[in-house]
């Protein structure tokens, strides 16, 4: 049996390590690039979600007219399975901050946000609106850091084309951070509209695009620049079942990202796409008693990725959203709304509590 000399053995060991690193490093770069492309598509779909919310507000204004000022306070917490007591055998779900003072866990990401939106409305055929969210990120020690901040802001103009149709255009800015390596910015120019084929049905469409930029320029993100766009189409109907109003709907949404890698590992631009199908139903009831109005509602929504293509392969995920809410008109021109939103699947289970106070003055 041949015996290797120590020097030759060291050379073989170094060669094996070099071969292992040559395989591991590209895989790590590919995983980081995959996360960046996914975050870019999430930014595009977040811009689409805000436009869809605006279209829904125009189509179904609710129990009061559009308010002049909105204050939204959201308490959002990601649920993780973690052992709270070292004597427990099985991990228990971490309780939301609303019910559990979890002061021994660091907060590298924000867990609450305050949204302030001012809407300018007119009595004519056009409405100017604006709304948005800015989250101030935190360092690992809990200090606020602007470079970890997230933004989801939009402003636009609605134009009433007819009794059954409304269209509009909007400018938006979405920003997200990726594991402390930097941030992605996506300013968008979008258009949207809603049309009622029948008195009890509707068709909503949105589309938008914008340049994709990473900041700061010297960050560790694999994406240097690019473009991202989105398009959604929603069809739904409304019908009454006794005192309840049921609103089933189906939506097809797609996001496309064209990215230029920062290094030379990939030649040319990369094209990634993501298409999802969404089905849901909203059940609501309006109760009027002695001048007061209360409107409880429940929304169930299922999201399924039907195609998620990129140069690194395909992956399919699904999400389930359950959102009970109650809206009440406390006094003339004063409306309060409470919503608890639970999302299961995707990147992890999340819970959020939203309290909204609206007034017109």
From TrEMBL:
Residues 1-30 form the signal peptide. It holds the Pfam family Autotransporter. It comes from the Bacteria. It comes from Aureimonas phyllosphaerae. This is Autotransporter domain-containing protein. Residues 128-306 form the Autotransporter domain. Keywords: Signal. InterPro entries: Autotransporte_beta, Autotransporte_beta_dom_sf.
């Amino acid at each position: 049996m041949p015996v290797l000399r120590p020097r030759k053995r060291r050379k073989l060991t170094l060669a094996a390590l070099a071969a292992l690193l040559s395989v591991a490093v590209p895989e790590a770069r590919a995983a980081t690039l995959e996360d960046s492309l996914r975050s870019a598509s999430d930014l595009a779909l977040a811009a689409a979600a805000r436009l869809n919310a605006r279209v829904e507000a125009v189509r179904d204004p609710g129990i009061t007219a559009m308010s002049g000022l909105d204050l939204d306070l959201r308490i959002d917490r990601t649920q993780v399975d973690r052992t709270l007591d070292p004597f427990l055998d099985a991990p228990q779900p971490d309780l939301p901050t609303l019910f559990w003072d979890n002061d021994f866990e660091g907060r590298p990401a924000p867990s609450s946000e305050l949204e302030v939106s001012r809407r300018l409305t007119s009595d004519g055929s056009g409405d100017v609106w604006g709304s948005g969210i800015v989250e101030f990120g935190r360092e690992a020690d809990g200090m606020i850091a602007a470079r970890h901040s997230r933004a989801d802001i939009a402003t636009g103009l609605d134009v009433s084309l007819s009794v059954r149709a409304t269209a509009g255009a909007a400018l938006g800015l979405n920003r997200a951070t990726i594991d402390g390596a930097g941030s992605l910015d996506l300013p968008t120019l979008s258009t949207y509209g809603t049309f009622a084929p029948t008195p009890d049905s509707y068709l909503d469409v949105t589309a938008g695009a914008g340049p994709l930029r990473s900041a700061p320029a010297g960050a560790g993100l694999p994406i240097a620049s690019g473009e991202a766009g989105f398009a959604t189409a929603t069809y739904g109907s409304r019908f009454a079942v006794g005192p309840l109003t049921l609103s089933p709907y189906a939506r097809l949404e797609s996001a496309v990202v064209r990215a230029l890698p920062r290094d030379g590992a990939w030649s040319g631009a990369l094209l990634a796409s993501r298409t999802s199908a969404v089905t849901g139903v909203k059940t609501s009831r309006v109760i009027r008693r002695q001048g007061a109005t209360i409107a409880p509602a429940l929304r169930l929504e299922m999201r399924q990725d039907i195609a998620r293509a990129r140069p690194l392969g395909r992956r399919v995920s699904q999400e389930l959203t359950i959102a009970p809410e109650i809206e009440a008109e406390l006094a003339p021109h004063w409306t309060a709304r409470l919503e608890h939103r639970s999302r299961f699947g995707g990147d992890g289970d999340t819970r959020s509590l939203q309290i909204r106070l609206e007034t017109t003055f």
